[in-house]
Amino acid sequence: MRIALRSSLSGSIRRWLFLMALPVMICGCSREGDGSPTGRKLPSIDLSFSFDDGRVSPPMTMEVAATDPERAKGLMFRRSLQPDHGMIFIFEREEPHSFWMRNTLIPLDMVFVSKDLRVVGFLEDVPPLTENPRSVGAPSQYVLEFSAGTVRRLGVQVGSKINIIGALPKSG
Length: 172
Hints:
About 20% of the residues lie in helices and about 30% in strands. It is α+β, with helices and mostly antiparallel strands and about 170 residues long.
């Protein structure tokens, strides 16, 4: 009886370990700082915000999610995000876009930006691990994601302009 119990416990532990590792095996990557579903490092650009009062924010380094698989994964499975980093999602068309926080482990700020690089809306401190659709209801071509608190810290407002430093890849 005792041997069967140990064997069963060992099998339970093996199953538990397998299930815990399954998201990493399915994703193929969950390394910090690598948002690519293929395991390759995503391209990055720098951007800043310009404000009506003439201020310009310090530059932020943004990983670029320009393909369907990159946009689908986004910042999932990240355990942290540096304060001056984020992700820019590039879409083929300007239209209302909606995001959820499935498998996203950290709260985020989301900034929705028009094709003329103006902020059309933002969401602050979006709770992690939810499947509730999040949108601002306005058409956007780009969506920026940052650690929660970034919008307030920088003073981002509807109408703020983003300045892209470097070449922005096309959506694919």
